[in-house]
Design goal:
Length: about 550
């Protein structure tokens, strides 16, 4: 263990992680058992490169995010790109970074190593949102894109997302590319010494790429029919500057800002967890909205690929209610369907029909919309790497606040373009004398009322999650609470057209659905519950769907305890 730690230390160019590791090595040599345990957690395993790239705490060792790990990843990815390039073609990579700790240095390390390995490397001109990087891969016709971000993870985390150009159209990697890249990274880690990796000169992109993203995103909106009194927070991330320029070009009045959260700040000082879904994260936005009597709150997460929305609600202690990702996903899907639908609403969807898509853990409400407008509906595994690849996609979403409203421009979730689409919708509704709350009611009256809930259990040992999944498979429940199970779909070996995934889908006799899966990015077991009611008045539909949701929530908590 000490030999591995010293070898790592000899490669590390970062004074901070050098000092950290040297202190640990000295403590272990002095017999400190706590330090030894700490060293084991860093060196017994390695952050695995997968379809989500890399993500973890910034610290020393192969099981953490640091300059050694990122350098090895860059060198391995460069080898992969060279090997898959056509003869005589120089592969290219465009690299973006957000405002998190070490994002800029990880990005410049990547650019220099890529260039040294014979890949044309282009660094975006400054810290920018993830959607701009996803756009740039297609706009610059790059072979690959790398975004240095940990999105909405804790402050001391960072990550490394990879997109592929060409036939992948700028979407995130999927299998088998992840395995091929991972193999090259592991080869570099085994055979190469990071200080000896060749470095080269890289390009810095002109502002033109940002202006092109702004123009394409602003074009999603028509001239506002009514201006909206909105509040915006960037959650200490990089969203505001780009969002501001998009809104100005689209003709919207600028929102009132949550000033304390508007500038990028890697410490995220006003939130315990920089995720709009977490309790307390939007408290300052609610406070600002009350001060100005806002009709709408829009929030991006730190890299601006997600969008949170809140509307006035007198029954709430804050005066506002954050809509769930499923609610926003359904109403943006309705808007997209209405704009794109065939004049013949009775048309039978075909392979060439425009498609609505969402992940398997997202609300079935989008399926009802697709059916009503003669559009295809497709379910995918979790992640926009799958949603974005649906043929003839016109709109896709994921319940975790991710929306893709402009698949011809960006092949990833985009919190800025989603904000433009939502503001356009609210503007239209206001001109008609109604609100987003009223639109949600109209949705429930037209398609049925859908309710959703989620249980998230954080664990200290990942083996705990495996044990729960095994128990559910070996002793499948006949009831969840008092509601009888109809059937259970196991995605472990694949299901239908979907590839294998560690997911269970429990179908109930009342039409409700429960999904159980381990989180792909955090040590959590996640349970997604969806109920619906299409009978009776709006009030009766809401009550029935909520009663089923409450029953299934109690039942699932008992089953996974």
């Amino acid at each position: 263990m000490l030999q591995a730690a010293r070898a790592w230390l000899n490669q590390d160019p970062d004074p901070e992680t050098q000092a950290q590791l040297r202190t640990l090595i000295n403590a272990v040599e002095d017999g400190d058992t706590v330090a030894l345990s700490n060293l084991h957690s860093r060196f017994d395993t390695r952050l695995a490169f997968g379809t989500a790239g890399l993500r973890g705490e910034i610290s020393a060792g192969p099981n953490r995010m640091n300059r050694v790990l990122v350098s090895q990843a860059a060198a391995g990815l460069a080898t992969y790109l060279r090997r898959r390039a056509a003869p005589g073609v120089t592969p290219s990579v465009v690299i973006g970074y957000d405002g998190r700790k070490n994002s800029h240095v990880f990005a410049t390390d990547t650019a220099a190593i890529m260039a040294g390995a014979g890949v044309r490397a282009i660094l975006l001109p400054r810290l920018l949102p993830t959607p701009v990087l996803a756009f740039a891969v297609r706009h610059l016709d790059a072979s690959c894109g790398v975004m240095v971000t940990a999105s909405h993870n804790p402050p001391n985390d960072n990550g490394y997302k990879v997109y592929l150009g060409g036939v992948n159209s700028g979407a995130q990697i999927v299998s088998p590319d992840d395995k091929a890249i991972s193999d090259e990274i592991l080869r570099v880690a085994a055979d190469e010494h990071v200080p000896h990796l060749p470095r080269g000169s890289y390009e810095t992109a002109e502002e033109d790429v940002v202006l092109a993203y702004i123009a394409a995103t602003a074009s999603l909106a028509h001239t506002p029919r009514a201006q909206v009194n909105a509040v915006y927070t960037a959650m200490h991330g990089v969203g505001w500057d780009t969002t501001r320029r998009v809104l100005e070009k689209a003709g919207f009045d600028l929102p009132t800002l949550v000033d304390a959260q508007i500038a990028p700040d890697a410490a995220f000082p006003t939130v315990a967890f920089p995720n709009p879904e977490e309790p307390g994260a939007m408290d300052l936005a609610y406070e600002t909205a009350r001060e100005v009597g806002a009709e709408l709150i829009i929030a991006n997460d730190p890299d601006a690929d997600r969008l949170a929305v809140a509307i006035p609600d007198l029954s709430s202690a804050t005066g506002y209610r954050r809509l769930s990702g499923n609610e926003v996903g359904a109403i943006l899907g309705w808007r997209a369907a209405a704009l794109a639908a065939s004049p013949d609403l009775d048309a039978v969807p075909t392979a060439d029909t425009g498609a609505l898509a969402c992940s398997i853990v997202s609300s079935p409400a989008l399926h009802a919309v697709a059916d009503a407008y003669g559009l295809r509906f497709t379910e995918t595994l979790t992640g926009f790497k799958w949603v974005s690849r649906v043929p003839n996609l016109i709109y896709g979403f994921e319940e975790a606040l991710g929306y893709l409203v402009n698949p011809e421009t960006v092949r990833d979730k985009d919190g800025i373009s989603a904000a433009v689409a939502l503001l356009s919708l609210v503007s239209d509704l206001k001109s008609e004398g109604t609100t987003l709350a009223g639109y949600l009611d109209r949705f429930s009256e037209k398609f049925g009322h859908y309710a959703s809930g989620q249980i998230s259990v954080r664990v200290s040992e990942l083996s705990t999650i495996a044990l729960v999944m095994t128990r559910l498979r070996e002793s499948p429940p006949t009831h969840v609470g008092r509601i009888r199970v109809d059937e259970i779909d196991d995605f472990r070996w694949g299901f239908g057209d979907l590839p294998p995934s560690d997911v269970l889908r429990i179908r109930l006799t009342d039409g409700s659905r429960v999904m159980v899966r381990p989180s792909g990015t955090e040590p959590k077991l996640k349970v997604y519950i969806d109920t619906r009611s299409k009978v009776g008045t709006l009030v009766e539909r809401r009550a029935a769907a909520q009663a089923a949701l409450d029953e299934l929530d109690r039942g699932m908590r008992a089953l996974i305890a």
